[in-house]
Amino acid sequence: MSWLTAPTTHYPVTIDPVIGNLTGTGDTFVKENDTVTHEPEHSVGYTGANRMRALLRWDNDPAFMGTTITAATLKLWNHVSFTCDAKPVYAYPITSAMSVTNATWATQPTVDTSATYSSSATFSHGYEPGCSNDYGTLDVKKIVAGWASGALTNYGIEPARVGD
């Protein structure tokens, strides 16, 4: 690290570490008019009769607490769709405790749907043969920055369809 002692280096020097993937601590989904817990799947959307929402949880990594978050993405593997027409999906921060092992539509946690933390993306994959399986990616920087700053308690993220 000779560059630190080089005469052209201006202080203070800020080193921006990259923090890798957070470790998931639980996931499930809840389905309207259903009393069954569905882990470890992440179904999101509408079946034509019932709405479905994923519930995803991670532990906070102490390395990112109190830091400035410059990017955070959530990649969702989309392998079953009923159409190739892209549909919007939101990422909402979960705002209350949840039990992954016995979450149902009736007991699902609350979420913050405000623009302060939510984000959205539009995608559709997995309707064979027209559109192959692929990832849909959501920008969750605002949520993770809220966790890192302490403005939000990390109860997880709920991907859900727009208008759900």
Features:
164 residues, mainly beta, 3-stranded antiparallel sheet, 1 helix, globular
Structural features, described:
- A hairpin with a 4-residue loop joins strand 2 (45-46) and strand 3 (51-58).
- The protein has one helix at 141-149, and strands spanning 24-31, 45-46, 51-58, 73-78, 87-93, 119-123, 134-139, 157-161.
- The chain is built from 1 helix and 8 strands.
- The chain has one domain (21-161).
- Helix content is 5%, strand content 29%.
- The protein is globular and about 65 Å long.
- By secondary structure, it is mainly beta.
- A 3-stranded antiparallel sheet has the order 1-3-2, with no helix packed on it.
Total count of strands: 8
User: Strand-and-helix sequence, N→C?
Assistant: EEEEEEEHE
Helicity level: under 10%
What portion of the residues fall into strands of 2 or more residues? 25-35%
Strand order of the largest sheet: 1-3-2
Give the domain tally: 1
User: The biggest beta sheet, please?
Assistant: 3 strands, antiparallel
Shape: globular
* Low confidence ranges: none
- What distance separates the N and C termini? 52 Å
Determine the mean pLDDT. 82
Helix tally equals 1
Give the helix/strand class. Answer: mainly beta
Rounded radius of gyration (Å): 19 Å
Domain Carbohydrate-binding module family: 25-149
Main location: secreted
Keywords: Secreted, Signal
Protein name: Carbohydrate-binding module family 96 domain-containing protein
